[in-house]
Specification:
By secondary structure, this protein is mainly alpha-helical. Among the domains are: 42 residues, no CATH class; 162 residues, no CATH class; 79 residues, Helix Hairpins, CATH 1.10.287.70; 81 residues, Helix Hairpins. It has a two-stranded antiparallel sheet. The N terminus and C terminus are likely disordered. One of its GO terms (molecular function) is small conductance calcium-activated potassium channel activity.
């Protein structure tokens, strides 16, 4: 029992914290082989590898993209049918109780049901992708409160639509255009149920995200992951605003203008005849959007006032963005700035030279009319002095303009260029330092070799002295064979550092001395040779 418990603890230590159910079938199968019982042990599944997960993830990505496209098509279809039905009923072509109105509302209901199913399928694919990315086996792990709230909000937004049937309510409001008269009208519920259908347009942002090259390209996603950038709808919109800001603003402003005008007309047409005309509603929306507000046409209902208030707030933001885009378009590019700075620098250099020449000329003329003439003309001297001061002021002004031009030229791009130049200089210095280090290394190697040779020099000198001694011995033995019995001093006694030779083994001064040294002790003194007669 203790052994089994230890094995169980070892197995559980290797189980992943998230994918807890992927290993338990195999564990149960081992328990069944050991004599235990486990239901479904034969249905054990192997954990998928990374290749299977990547293939499955790619397929889910494509499927999610198609489902998002279908959801946008169903949402736009419902909005278009809703607009057609309201326009036909407001124009008096048919009433709300006619069969044609019921048929169009039925189409809207069917498209809404399909849209809700597509939204549920989309979030189901999101959960599957979450499970694959995090190696989870239970879908309930992905059901956070944020995801549940998002799914509920999307379903509630897309579920609102005009239902088939004729349902009305009494709408009471105070008419501002008619002196504050209280107006009471019977209005169908289709008005309040049709306007929220425009909230389905949020699906356009989702489709833009899923079809963006930044989101679908694997290399872009890898670079973004390395730089900790999340590819979401906000990032895609920022990219579009950077690439084509004018087009994005134009499309957004025109779409908002048309939608706000139509919804304002639907809210106000039952109480005021002026708003029954779509052009008047478009005029009011445009004036409110531009934050002008002439006051010739005003909304009466709280619905219309809320729409105009929203248009005013969005219009203020769009105006600020429009100013930023226009200022960016009017700004010089980097190449144009460099050309402009170069031309201004050239002109200022010419003006500086002319101003300096004028200063020298007036200096010479003042000297000429004061020192080189017999009679000084004060009027002419004052004229040249005045021109001299003007030339000095012009020279100072040109120098100041040059200084301002240099200060304005120090932009971020020029700083980046300066940084690149500094980097090149530092790289050159680093390469030179590396070459100097290599030379010092080779010099150290040569010094080490020289030190080794100097250390081996005493041994070489000892060998040379030994060879010389042996040659001298051979020569002496050859010339004086009787002195061959003198012993040869060993090489150890010959030291290159000794100042004198060993006293016991000196060099013979002459052959006679050598013979005297080599003679035995028992022999008497050698006979002196006879003198010549």
């Amino acid at each position: 029992m203790k052994a089994y418990s230890g094995r169980e603890a070892t197995e559980e230590a290797g189980v992943a914290l998230v994918g807890v159910h992927s290993e338990y079938p195999r564990f149960g199968e081992e328990r069944a082989l050991g004599g235990g019982t486990y239901k479904g042990g034969g249905a054990a599944k192997h954990k998928p590898n990374i290749g299977y997960r990547l293939g499955r993830r790619k397929a889910l990505f494509e499927k999610r993209k198609r489902i998002s496209d279908y959801a946008l098509v169903m949402g736009m279809f419902g909005i278009i049918i809703m607009v057609i039905e309201n326009e036909l009923s407001s124009a008096g072509v048919y009433s709300k109780a006619s069969i044609y109105s019921q048929a169009l509302k039925t189409l809207i209901s069917m498209s809404t049901v399909i849209l809700l199913g597509l939204i549920v399928a989309y979030h189901a694919l999101e959960i599957q992708l979450f499970m694959i990315d995090n190696c989870a086996d239970d879908w309930r792990i992905a059901m956070t409160w944020q995801r549940i709230a998002q799914i509920g909000l999307e379903l509630s937004i897309c579920a609102v639509h005009p239902i088939p049937g004729q349902y009305t309510f009494t709408w009471t409001t105070k008419l501002a255009n008619k002196g504050g008269v209280i107006g009471v009208e019977v209005v169908p519920y289709d008005v309040t149920l049709s306007l929220p259908m425009f909230l389905r347009l949020y699906l356009i942002c989702r489709v833009m995200l899923l079809h963006s090259k930044l989101f679908t390209d694997a290399s872009s996603r890898s670079i973004g992951a390395l730089n900790r950038i999340n590819f979401n709808t906000r990032f895609v919109l920022k990219t579009l605003m950077t690439i084509c800001p004018g087009t994005v603003l134009l499309v957004f402003m025109v779409s908002l203008w048309i939608i706000a005008s139509w919804t304002l007309r639907q809210c106000e047409r039952f109480h005021d005849e002026d708003h029954a005309n779509l052009l008047n509603s478009m005029w009011l929306t445009a004036i409110t959007f531009l934050c002008v507000g002439y006051g010739d046409i005003v909304p009466n209902t709280y619905c219309g006032r809320g729409i105009t208030l929203t248009c005013g707030m969005v219009g203020a933001g769009c105006t600020a963005l429009l100013v930023a885009v226009v200022s960016r378009k009017l700004e010089l590019t980097r190449a144009e700035k460099h050309v402009h700075n170069f031309m201004m620098d050239t002109q200022l250099t010419k003006r500086l030279k002319n101003a300096a020449a004028n200063v020298l000329r007036e200096t010479w003329l003042i000297y000429k009319h004061t020192r080189r003439v017999k009679r000084v003309d004060p009027g002419r001297v004052r004229t040249h002095q005045r021109k001299f001061l003007l030339a000095i002021y012009a020279l100072r002004k040109v120098k100041m303009d040059q200084r301002k031009l240099m200060d304005n030229a120090n932009t971020i791009t020029d700083m980046a260029k300066t940084q690149n130049t500094v980097y090149e200089i530092v790289s050159d210095m680093s390469s030179r330092q590396d070459s100097i280090e290599e030379r010092l290394t080779s010099l150290e190697e040569k010094l080490s070799t020289l030190q080794e040779q100097v250390n081996s020099l005493p041994d070489m000198m000892a060998r040379c002295l030994q060879q010389c001694w042996e040659r001298a011995e051979q020569r002496r033995n050859f010339l004086h064979p009787d002195a061959a019995a003198v012993p040869t001093p060993p090489a150890a006694n010959i030291s290159p550092y000794a100042r004198t030779m060993p006293p016991t083994h000196g060099w013979p001064a002459s052959p006679t001395t050598a013979r005297a040294h080599s003679a035995p002790e028992s022999a008497g003194p050698a006979p002196r040779p006879p003198l010549p007669s």
